Amino acid sequence: MKIEITSRSTEVTETARRLAHEKCGKLERFFHGHTSVRVILDKQHDDFRVELIATTPGKHTIVIEELHTDQLAAVDLAAARMERHVRKTKERLYERGRQSRPILEPPTPEVEEDEPTYQSVLAPRPKNRRTA
Predict the structure, then answer these.
(1) Average pLDDT value for residue range 40-47
(2) CA gap 94, 77 in Å, rounded
(3) What is the C-alpha separation between 4 and 86, in angstroms, rounded?
(4) Where are the domains of the chain?
(5) Residues with Cβ < 8 Å from 104, sequence gap 6 or more?
(6) What is 2-79's CATH number?
(7) What is the pLDDT of residues 64-109, one digit of tens each?
(8) Nearest C-alpha neighbor of 81 from the set 24, 132, 41, 128
(9) Taking the model in full, what pTM does it have?
């Protein structure tokens, strides 16, 4: 798995870099193969903005953005959201490939010969004598 960490307007601490590697490394268990994750750290006013961009083997691109006042918390929250989203996407892809079982028709009840049918139960209607 390729993890690239960049910063725009703030300096990345070694702790944040290590946390990002640790958290994003867990995504590899969902998609085996050439998955790449870009972590972009930015400071906007008083908040730290973390953007995670993951490219999976099926060429799906997943983008997660998180804001928090603490840089480590922002990395942790973004990684947790990415893991939930990747798990959901992986389950959706797995379920799409599965076939449903054929629907079984309910058995038709057999009518015994000695039971009366609907038509035999109905009494013949008397004809109207006035019209005859």
Answers:
(1) 89
(2) 26
(3) 18
(4) 2-79
(5) none
(6) 3.30.160.100
(7) 999 999 989 999 999 999 989 888 877 887 777 776 677 777 777 7
(8) 24
(9) 0.66
